[in-house]
Write a structure and sequence with these properties.
By secondary structure, the chain is an all-alpha fold. 50% of the residues lie in helices and 0% in strands. The mean pLDDT is 89. Bound molecules: heme C (HEC). Heme C (HEC) binds next to helix 2, helix 3 and helix 4.
Length: 128
């Protein structure tokens, strides 16, 4: 037969659950490079570093100016965007490519979950 919980054990269980929950939230807030790498597979379909890839190479993109690669033919809107790819600008662009650089040619609708976007940006920072 199950033992009934006393008042103290109930409070102990609740505080243990609260600690676990707080830990989960802390983990979810820190950008997760491994998760970003997983998510980047959807980007790598175009950003593959192969000759003839649909998108420009993203190696070293963090801290690079938009439309900076001679090897890629960027759209006019991307060339005129006059953006530095800081983590913030990347965040906005990945969340809403057309909102950030109107008329750019990247056929991608955007990542809706802001934590996912942070993870992808953290992964991009590891591409050297
Ligand atoms: C279907 C193909 C495709 C997918 C998928 C795609 N991109 Fe792109 N991306 C492009 C193209 C094409 C451009 C160039 C846009 C232009 O010149 O207007 C681009 C441009 C970019 C740029 C600007 C690069 C520079 O040198 O200025 C970044 C950053 C970028 N993409 C990140 C991403 C990320 C991160 C993902 C995944 C979340 C992604 N892209 C998914 C095709 C794609």
């Amino acid at each position: 037969m199950r033992e009934r919980m006393t008042g103290t054990t109930i409070i102990q269980s609740i505080s243990a659950a609260a600690v676990l929950l707080a830990m989960n939230i802390a983990v979810a807030n820190a950008a997760d490079v491994e998760h970003g790498k997983e998510l980047f597979k959807a980007c790598a379909a175009c950003h593959s570093d192969q000759p003839g890839a649909l998108g420009p190479s993203l190696k070293g993109v963090v801290g690079r100016k938009a439309a900076a690669l001679d090897s890629f033919r960027y759209s006019g809107p991307m060339q005129r965007a006059n953006l530095m790819w800081t983590p913030e600008n990347l965040h906005d662009y990945i969340a809403d490519p057309q909102g950030k650089v109107k008329g750019n040619r990247m056929p991608y609708g955007g990542l809706t979950n802001p934590n996912d976007v942070d993870d992808v940006v953290a992964y991009l920072a590891t591409l050297k």
